[in-house]
Amino acid sequence: LGRGGGLRYAAERLPDADQPWYATNGDIWTRFSLREMAAFHAERDATATLALARPRIPWGAVETDAFGHITDFIESPPSPYLINAGVYVFSPAFTKL
Questions:
Q1: What is the pLDDT of residues 30-59, one digit of tens each?
Q2: Parallel, antiparallel, or unpaired: how do β-strands 48-53 and 21-24 relate?
Q3: Which tens digit of pLDDT belongs to each residue from 75-92?
Q4: Residues 89, 43: contact at Cβ < 8 Å?
Q5: Residue 88's closest CA among 30, 15, 13, 21?
Q6: For residues 24 and 83, is the Cβ–Cβ distance under 8 A?
Q7: HEC string of 12-46?
Q8: Nearest partner of 11 among 22, 26, 27, judged by Cα
Q9: Residue 31 and residue 46: Cα distance in Å, rounded?
Protein backbone atom coordinates (compact mmCIF):
# COMPACT_ATOMS: atom_id res chain seq x y z
CA LEU A 1 0.00 0.00 0.00
CA GLY A 2 2.98 2.34 0.34
CA ARG A 3 3.13 5.41 2.53
CA GLY A 4 -0.35 6.48 3.48
CA GLY A 5 -1.92 3.65 1.50
CA GLY A 6 -3.37 2.00 4.57
CA LEU A 7 -4.81 5.32 5.72
CA ARG A 8 -6.40 5.95 2.33
CA TYR A 9 -7.81 2.42 2.32
CA ALA A 10 -9.32 2.94 5.78
CA ALA A 11 -10.62 6.42 4.90
CA GLU A 12 -12.59 5.01 1.97
CA ARG A 13 -14.52 2.86 4.44
CA LEU A 14 -15.38 5.51 7.02
CA PRO A 15 -19.09 5.79 7.85
CA ASP A 16 -19.01 9.61 7.52
CA ALA A 17 -16.40 10.34 4.84
CA ASP A 18 -17.25 14.06 4.76
CA GLN A 19 -15.91 14.67 8.28
CA PRO A 20 -12.35 14.91 9.61
CA TRP A 21 -11.07 11.72 11.23
CA TYR A 22 -8.32 10.59 13.59
CA ALA A 23 -5.64 7.96 13.20
CA THR A 24 -3.10 6.87 15.80
CA ASN A 25 -0.05 4.69 15.91
CA GLY A 26 -0.65 1.53 17.90
CA ASP A 27 2.07 2.14 20.47
CA ILE A 28 1.39 5.64 21.79
CA TRP A 29 0.42 7.03 25.17
CA THR A 30 -0.65 10.64 25.37
CA ARG A 31 -2.37 13.12 27.63
CA PHE A 32 -3.20 16.00 25.32
CA SER A 33 -6.70 17.00 24.25
CA LEU A 34 -7.97 15.49 21.01
CA ARG A 35 -10.66 18.20 20.95
CA GLU A 36 -7.96 20.89 20.98
CA MET A 37 -6.09 19.09 18.23
CA ALA A 38 -9.27 18.91 16.13
CA ALA A 39 -9.89 22.64 16.73
CA PHE A 40 -6.28 23.45 15.72
CA HIS A 41 -6.79 21.38 12.54
CA ALA A 42 -10.11 23.09 11.70
CA GLU A 43 -8.84 26.63 12.40
CA ARG A 44 -6.10 26.14 9.82
CA ASP A 45 -8.32 24.36 7.30
CA ALA A 46 -5.59 21.72 7.17
CA THR A 47 -5.57 18.55 5.11
CA ALA A 48 -3.52 16.73 7.74
CA THR A 49 -2.35 17.60 11.24
CA LEU A 50 0.31 15.63 13.11
CA ALA A 51 0.82 15.81 16.85
CA LEU A 52 4.45 16.59 17.66
CA ALA A 53 6.35 16.18 20.90
CA ARG A 54 9.68 17.30 22.26
CA PRO A 55 10.98 14.36 24.30
CA ARG A 56 13.39 14.72 27.16
CA ILE A 57 16.88 13.33 26.65
CA PRO A 58 17.37 10.54 29.21
CA TRP A 59 20.95 11.52 30.01
CA GLY A 60 22.33 14.52 31.79
CA ALA A 61 23.92 17.17 29.59
CA VAL A 62 26.94 19.37 30.22
CA GLU A 63 27.22 22.96 29.01
CA THR A 64 30.64 24.48 28.38
CA ASP A 65 31.92 27.92 27.49
CA ALA A 66 34.14 28.84 24.52
CA PHE A 67 37.21 27.59 26.45
CA GLY A 68 35.66 24.19 27.23
CA HIS A 69 35.07 25.06 30.89
CA ILE A 70 31.98 23.43 32.38
CA THR A 71 29.33 26.05 33.08
CA ASP A 72 26.30 23.89 33.92
CA PHE A 73 24.93 20.38 34.37
CA ILE A 74 21.38 19.82 33.10
CA GLU A 75 19.49 16.65 34.05
CA SER A 76 17.26 15.22 31.30
CA PRO A 77 17.08 18.33 29.09
CA PRO A 78 14.44 18.62 26.37
CA SER A 79 15.54 17.43 22.94
CA PRO A 80 16.25 20.14 20.38
CA TYR A 81 14.14 18.12 17.91
CA LEU A 82 10.41 17.54 17.61
CA ILE A 83 9.23 13.98 17.00
CA ASN A 84 6.07 12.49 15.52
CA ALA A 85 3.81 11.72 18.51
CA GLY A 86 1.73 9.24 16.49
CA VAL A 87 -1.64 11.06 16.52
CA TYR A 88 -3.12 12.48 13.33
CA VAL A 89 -6.22 14.34 12.15
CA PHE A 90 -7.14 14.11 8.48
CA SER A 91 -9.66 16.05 6.42
CA PRO A 92 -11.66 14.36 3.66
CA ALA A 93 -9.33 16.04 1.13
CA PHE A 94 -6.51 13.76 2.34
CA THR A 95 -7.85 10.85 0.30
CA LYS A 96 -7.62 12.92 -2.88
CA LEU A 97 -3.88 13.63 -2.58
A1: 888 999 999 999 999 999 999 999 999 999
A2: unpaired
A3: 999 999 999 999 999 999
A4: no
A5: 21
A6: no
A7: CCCCCCCCCEEEECCCCCCCCCHHHHHHHHHHCCC
A8: 22
A9: 22
